[in-house]
Design goal:
heterodimer; A: mainly alpha; 3 helices; B: mainly alpha; Rna Polymerase Sigma Factor, Chain: A; globular
Chain lengths: 126, 183
Amino acid sequence: MEEEKFLIERVGKQNPFKVPEGYFDTLTSQIMAKVDAEKDAQIVEIRKVKKAKSVWLRPLLYAAACGCVLFVSVASYLSHEDQSIAAPAESTVASVQTMDYYSFDEAADYVMIDNQDIYACLSSEY
Amino acid sequence: MDKNNDQQIKQLLSNPDTQRKGFELMVRQYSEQLYWQVRRIVLTHEDSNDVLQNAFIKAWNGLSSFHGDSQVLTWVSRIAINESLDFVRRQKNMTIVSTDEEESCVANTLMADDYFDGDETEAQLQQAISLLPDVQRTVFTLRYYDEMKYSEMSQLLKTSEGSLKASYHIAVKKISEFFKSHD
C-alpha cells in the first residue's frame, strides 16, 4: 500500500506521547483505589435502599401496633360491658328471691300461721 | 497476549470471593496497553488517565455482563475504546469551532503539551487522525501503531474484517492527502 509507505517514511511509527515518570508503577494501585471506593459506595447505596425501605415500612408497623392496642382495648371494654349487664340481672334475681321470701312472710302473717304450724303441717303430710 | 493469564483472570473474575483479586490482576496485566489505546484517541495525558480509570470502573460495574465468551483483554479494550470515543464526542460538542480552527487547535495543543515528545510532523499526524470519523480513527490507531491483526480487531469492534480493511485504507488515504495538501 503506497500511501501507508508514504506515511511511514514521512512520520514513522514511533510513539510521540510521554507519561509522567513512574506513572505506570502506580497506575494499578490508583485504579484499584477507585474501584474500592466504587465498591464501598455501592455497599452504602444498598444499605440506604434497605434503610429507605424500613423507613417506608415504619408507619405501617406503627399503624399495626395501634390497631392491636385498639383491638385489645375494645375487647376488654366489651367484656366489662357484658359483666356489668350480667351483674344487674343477678341482683334482679336476688331481689326477686328477696321479694318472694318477703311475700311468703306476709302471706303467713295473713293466714295467721307461725313457723311451728308450718312445720307441723309439713310433717303431717309425710 | 498470554492465554493462560487470560484464563486465570477469567476464573478469578467468575467467583465473587476472588473477583477483586482477578480484577487487580487484569488491571496490572492490561492497564498500560489500554492506556496507549486510549491516549492515541484522547491525545492528552490527563484526559487519558481519567478516561482509563472510568473505563475500569465501568468494567467493574459491568462484571456481571462478562460471561467469558471473549478474551478479557478484548472485553476491557472495547469498554476503553468506547469510553475514549464518548469523551472525544463530548469534547467536540462542548467546543464548536470551525474546521480550520479545529485543525490548528490539535497540533498547537500537542506542541504545547509537556507530555508530547514528537516534532511538528508527528503533531500534524495526530491532527490528521483527529479529523477522521470515529471508526476510521480507531482502526487507524490500532493498526498503524499497535499493528493489531484484523481478526483481533474484528472481535474487538464487532465489525467484519473486510469493512475494517476498507476503513483503514480510507483513513491512510485521507491522512496522506492531508499531508500532501499541507506541503
